[in-house]
Amino acid sequence: MIQLEDFNQQIYDQFSSLLEKKKMTNQLNDSVSVQEFLAESRRLNIIEKAPFYVAKCLFTDQIVKEIEAYRMLFYQLCKKHMARQRSLLLGIEMIINENPEVQEKLLNTGCISRIFYELYQKDIVIEEVFYQWHEQNATEIIDETVSTKIRDCAKNFIEWLHSAEEGSDEDDNRSK
């Protein structure tokens, strides 16, 4: 989990500068650029925090569209890495936490559910990570009230995940 002491401003500035450059040259969704980006994340020793930094740098109040636009990047960053997936969810929380306009637009059940559904459908974040995230308390870098509201807004999505999982289990049992 990312804590306040883990947030190194100098590394973040260097990383965000690279992100901006790649964004401006439309190099965040081709495989070669994504691999270079992952290598730089490793070099800076922030690969586990990279999804948080990427979310903080790239996301606006258009997160659903941005997930699609940067799908390859997020997939490569997060696949098979639960800690990175949690880092991405924390980055989304941070975007909402830091910007009252984004809070006003996104802090409702429909928007939060749509964002999480996109992450789930694109295999960026797995069920177990959503469940863990939903059960955890706010971190020291996110306002507790905002964090609670985000989790409240995500409740329908989490319930949908549970019911979809139960339905899948029942289908598996019937086919045996």
Automatic annotation (TrEMBL):
InterPro entries referenced in this protein's UniProt entry, alphabetically: ARM-type_fold, W2_domain
Stored Pfam families: W2
W2 domain: residues covered: 5-171
SMART domains in the record: eIF5C
Protein name per UniProt: W2 domain-containing protein
Organism per entry: Adineta steineri
